[in-house]
């Protein structure tokens, strides 16, 4: 097995007297989809926010691509290649697809030795088209504001953005929430496509069918602790529910 | 001296009228006062009466607020009409309105200023010479009259306060100067506070006066230099329960001021003669159009000084600012 | 396995295809309604004005009058457009304009008295107005971005402070004693002399006898030229640069902009600085026009500028709008005012009409969202 892309060692996060994440150790390898499961309050979001730089861990270490990292703000993790797709997608609904894909990283023409810089809309549009084509996502036109797109298509834009910027690790938080069944399938297809291209995906989800549909391995948290880590094919729904509600706990065996 | 100037002006105008009633096409003049208030409303009555008497068309526009940004667009639109020969106006700032009114003159419209003037008011040898004439009160004299009236009412000693409207407006500026000068020269035992500027807002006038009353419990008198100043300042005195104890001199005889006079809250009201200003201005336009070249550059229209003793005398009460039938 | 969005959901850009031709027509019309209204209004005045006066509505002189009248409204509206697109609001622009007027008058007067030639004094006046305004804007933006106080409250507060400063610096009266700068405020790029022996003159004011002066029309007075240049620059910034794109993003989704790495705080400060700077320039131009600085000149213009922006189609919730829209909105207000005066209708009617147009503008924009939105919701089953 190759080296892990992401390695967390005894990560702990406390907020005052509350320990949200308790000494979690975990590895994520290239080319796999790992589901992160747990009931509300289990600490999944907090763990991920420590990885992406929104929070700083109280204890423990994070290694990314073999090197120890300290992300003090979200931009740092993004620069390192960790792309996070939040539930609210972090897209600007009033802008079109290319504008969103290049948000904050716009391509510019330079005139007068850099004194005047205008947006290079043509390049951004063609690059976006290429990225979408590679993911086999088809929009008839790229120039409408994305508020007119359905939820699933907006997810696709967010994913295309992460892929375009050469994410080395993709974290997706409840990506199929609020989507109709056909759109859920499309998003799961995209996740598989990502994995096949070598990008590991951490999938935070409540939706057990998604776990079985698309993930290779999974990790369950309960009250801040990791309670199991398995191959998806080695388990079933009942077991998982047991882990999530705290009835089962592999770390406290015997 | 002023009365004779008035008579002379009227005589000239009458001569011109007699000699030229049929000598020209119908004149069209524009009337652009300072703002909506009873003083200018009475002036408008004078303008309209003269227009009717002399067979002249009048186009009137009244700015809703006092300010060059309110008066200038209306002026420009009047100029753009292309059919006005004269504009009778009260410039709302003696320096800022010079350029816009010069533009009117360049477009072939002659200007007569009423109530307020441009520059220093001396259109013969002062810095601004293009208006035909200035017709208004001798506001410095009005200030002096107010000072003397207030001094008498408070026993010639104590502290008094001026509440005024806008800076750089010729009329109220002259009143403040006249008031302060007279107090300094002839009433050395009286201390003068202010002026504060309420920007033609009676509510502000009331707040400002109330604050001064708070700070000076022994305040003896207040001088409100125009319609809204007197209204607000008077209200502040009454609200503080000092009606009749703090003497108020009000410039401009609005019905509200007269009511206060009757109640004893105001001791002296200075009525200007806006009707005469308006009427005379139209006559001047007529005369000038008929070719008269000796119109006086400055005409002072005088005051009616109203107090409790003569408020019911029709010779004085007719100068109260009200429309007929009000 | 191709992912075809069209399998189960409407095509992404296919919104027009979803609407019936009738609805599509309505959407297009509602997008253009401001232009249509302006055209209709001009037509109305062209027809009615000659009936009530001996004037013609569409004359060279009148068109220039209208352009001069919109100078302050457009300039205040420019900054306001930027700010509102970023989902903020700037209530201080009116009084920043007054401060700009006072600062530029003081700069012109004092530098001239210290020996500067008039043209230099005028340039210093422009800088004083613009930079003074920008300074206020930076303060506004900093408090809004760093201290996270709502824009409404911050700009309201600074507007009072600015007002006080303007009155203080002008010593509570008009700032006079400036050198003769009337030429800068009232002369123009082009001149046209009507009648026989007339014609166009470029830049050089023709020497005319007093009588002939009446035939002289000034086309594109300098304040209008300056305003046009500022409008062009701001349009360029908003629609063609990264800064403009980021302004839209901040207004559309502040959190998304932040997470995308946009330096949101720096942008917000720049946006409010821009808004206040254009207000300061408006103050400078008014000083030129009246040859004096006034601390009370911007009082009534704040609401007019917001009305122009709303009529021009900028959504008060942020994220959408164009500079051209604001220009059209300002034109509507100015044409209305001028036309009503030429019809000899009392000035206060303009308030009533403008207020009605603003409400109609908001209703039209909302109904447009309704026509489009209803379809969208219907497809998300």
What is the approximate shape of chain A?
globular
CATH-defined architecture of the largest domain in chain B: 3-Layer(aba) Sandwich
| Unreliable segments of 5+ consecutive residues of chain A | none
**Number of DSSP E strands of chain A:** 12
Any overview of this molecule?
The complex is a heterotrimer of chains A (254), B (326) and C (381). Chain A has 254 residues and is an alpha/beta fold. Chain A has a domain at 6-93 and 167-252: P-loop containing nucleotide triphosphate hydrolases (Rossmann fold, 3-Layer(aba) Sandwich). Chain A contains eight helices and twelve strands. Chain A has helices spanning 44-52, 74-80, 97-101, 121-134, 151-164, 181-196, 208-214, 237-245; strands at 6-15, 18-28, 33-37, 59-64, 67-68, 82-85, 108-111, 116-119, 169-173, 201-204, 217-222, 225-231. A six-stranded mixed beta sheet of chain A has the order 6-9-10-3-11-12, with helices on both faces. Chain A has a four-stranded antiparallel beta sheet with strand order 2-1-4-5, with helices on one face. Chain B folds into two domains: 2-137 and 273-302, Response regulator (Rossmann fold); 139-271, 3-Layer(aba) Sandwich (Rossmann fold), CATH 3.40.50. Chain B has eleven helices and twelve strands. Chain B has helices at 2-20, 38-54, 68-81, 98-106, 139-153, 170-186, 202-215, 227-239, 255-263, 274-289, 314-317; strands at residues 28-32, 57-60, 86-89, 110-114, 133-136, 158-164, 190-197, 219-224, 247-251, 268-271, 298-300, 304-306. In chain B, strands 2-1-3-4-5-11 form a six-stranded parallel beta sheet, sandwiched between helices. By secondary structure, chain C is mainly alpha-helical. Chain C has helices at 15-18, 21-52, 60-85, 93-113, 118-146, 151-169, 182-186, 210-213, 222-240, 242-252, 254-259, 264-290, 301-311, 323-342, 348-379, and strands at residues 188-193, 199-202, 216-221. Chain C has a three-stranded antiparallel beta sheet with strand order 2-1-3. In chain C, helix 4 crosses helix 12 (264-290) and helix 5 (118-146) runs antiparallel to helix 6 (151-169). The longest helix of chain C has 32 residues, at 21-52. The two termini of chain C are 24 Å apart. Chains in contact: A-C, B-C.
């Amino acid at each position: 097995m190759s080296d892990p892309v992401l390695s967390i060692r005894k990560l702990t996060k406390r907020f005052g007297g509350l320990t949200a994440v308790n000494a979690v150790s975990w590895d994520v390898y290239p080319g796999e989809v790992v589901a992160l499961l747990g009931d509300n309050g289990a600490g999944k979001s907090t763990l991920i926010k420590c990885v992406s730089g929104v929070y700083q861990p109280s204890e423990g270490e994070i290694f990314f691509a073999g090197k120890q990292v300290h992300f003090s703000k979200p931009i740092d993790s993004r620069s390192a290649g960790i792309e996070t797709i939040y539930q609210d997608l972090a897209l600007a609904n009033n802008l079109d697809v290319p504008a969103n894909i290049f948000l904050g990283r716009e391509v510019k023409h330079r005139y007068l030795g850099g004194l005047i810089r205008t947006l290079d809309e043509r390049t951004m549009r063609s690059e976006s088209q290429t990225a979408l084509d590679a993911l086999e996502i088809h929009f008839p036109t790229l120039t409408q504001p994305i508020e007119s797109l359905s939820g699933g298509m907006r997810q696709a834009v967010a994913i295309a953005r992460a892929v375009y910027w050469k994410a080395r690790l993709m974290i997706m938080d409840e990506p199929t929430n609020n989507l109709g069944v056909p759109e859920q399938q499309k998003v799961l297809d995209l996740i598989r496509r990502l994995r096949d291209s070598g990008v590991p995906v951490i999938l935070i989800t409540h939706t057990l069918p998604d776990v079985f549909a698309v993930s290779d391995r999974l990790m369950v948290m309960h009250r801040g602790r990791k309670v199991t880590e398995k191959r998806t094919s080695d388990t079933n729904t009942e077991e998982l529910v047991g882990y999530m509600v705290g009835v089962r706990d592999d770390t406290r065996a015997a | 001296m002023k009365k004779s100037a008035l008579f002379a002006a009227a005589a000239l105008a009458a001569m011109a009228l007699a000699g030229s009633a049929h000598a020209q096409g119908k004149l069209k003049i524009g009337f652009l006062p300072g703002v909506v208030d009873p003083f200018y409303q009475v002036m408008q009555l004078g303008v309209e009466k003269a227009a009717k008497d002399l067979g002249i068309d009048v186009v009137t526009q009244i700015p809703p607020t006092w300010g060059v940004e309110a008066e200038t667009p209306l002026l420009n639109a009047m100029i753009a009409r292309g059919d006005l020969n004269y504009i009778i106006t009260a410039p709302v700032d003696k320096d800022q309105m010079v350029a816009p009114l010069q533009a009117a003159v360049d477009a072939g419209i002659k200007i007569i200023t009423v109530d307020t003037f441009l520059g220093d008011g001396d259109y013969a040898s002062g810095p601004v010479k293009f208006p035909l004439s200035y017709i208004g009160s001798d506001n410095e004299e009005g200030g002096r009259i107010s000072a003397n009236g207030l001094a008498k009412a408070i026993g010639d000693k104590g502290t008094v306060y001026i509440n005024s409207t806008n800076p750089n407006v010729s009329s109220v500026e002259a009143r403040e100067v006249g008031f302060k000068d007279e107090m300094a020269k002839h009433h050395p035992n009286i201390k003068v506070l202010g002026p504060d500027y309420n920007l033609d807002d009676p509510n502000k006038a009331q707040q400002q006066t109330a604050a001064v009353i708070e700070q000076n419990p022994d305040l003896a008198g207040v001088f409100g230099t125009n319609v809204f100043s007197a209204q607000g300042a008077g209200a502040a005195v009454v609200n503080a329960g000092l009606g009749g104890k703090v003497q108020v001199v009000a410039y401009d005889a609005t019905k509200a001021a007269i009511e206060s006079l009757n109640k004893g809250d105001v001791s002296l009201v200075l009525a200007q003669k806006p009707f005469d200003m308006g009427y005379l201005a139209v006559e001047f336009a007529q005369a000038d159009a008929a070719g008269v070249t000796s119109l006086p550059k400055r005409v002072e229209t005088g005051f009616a000084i109203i107090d409790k003793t003569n408020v019911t005398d029709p010779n004085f009460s007719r100068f109260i600012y009200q429309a007929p039938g009000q | 396995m191709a992912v075809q969005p069209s399998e189960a959901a409407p095509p992404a850009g296919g919104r027009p295809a979803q609407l019936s031709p009738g609805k599509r027509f309505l959407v297009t019309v509602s997008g253009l309604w401001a232009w249509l209204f302006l055209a209709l209004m001009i037509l109305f005045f062209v027809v009615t004005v000659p009936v009530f006066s001996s004037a013609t509505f569409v004359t060279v002189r009148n068109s220039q009058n209208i352009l001069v009248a919109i100078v302050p409204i457009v300039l205040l509206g420019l900054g306001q457009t930027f700010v509102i697109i970023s989902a903020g609001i700037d209530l201080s622009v009116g009084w920043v304009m007054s401060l700009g007027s006072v600062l530029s008058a003081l700069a012109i007067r004092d530098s001239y008295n210290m020996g500067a030639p008039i043209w230099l004094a005028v340039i210093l006046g422009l800088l004083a107005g613009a930079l003074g305004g920008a300074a206020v804007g930076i303060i506004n933006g900093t408090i809004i971005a760093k201290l996270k106080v709502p824009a409404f409250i911050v700009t309201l507060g600074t507007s009072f402070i600015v007002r006080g400063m303007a009155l203080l610096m002008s010593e509570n009266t008009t700032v006079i004693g400036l050198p003769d700068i009337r030429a800068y405020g009232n002369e123009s790029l082009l001149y046209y002399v009507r009648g026989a022996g007339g014609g166009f003159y470029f830049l050089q004011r023709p020497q005319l006898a007093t009588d002939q002066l009446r035939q002289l029309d000034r086309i594109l007075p300098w304040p209008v030229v300056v305003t046009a240049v500022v409008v062009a620059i701001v349009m360029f910034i908003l629609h063609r640069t990264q800064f403009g794109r980021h302004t839209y993003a901040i207004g559309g989704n502040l959190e998304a902009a932040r997470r995308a790495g946009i330096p949101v705080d720096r942008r917000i400060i720049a946006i409010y600085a821009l808004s206040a700077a254009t207000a300061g320039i408006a103050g400078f131009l008014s000083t030129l026009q009246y040859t004096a600085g006034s601390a009370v000149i911007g009082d009534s213009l704040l609401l007019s500028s917001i009305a122009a922006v709303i009529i021009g189609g900028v959504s008060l919730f942020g994220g959408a709008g164009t500079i051209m829209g604001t220009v059209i909105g300002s034109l509507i207000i100015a044409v209305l005012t001028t036309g009503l005066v030429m019809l000899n209708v009392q000035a206060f009617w303009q308030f009533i009409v403008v207020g009605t147009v603003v409400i109609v503008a908001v209703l039209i924009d909302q109904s447009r969202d309704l026509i489009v939105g209803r379809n969208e919701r219907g497809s998300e089953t």
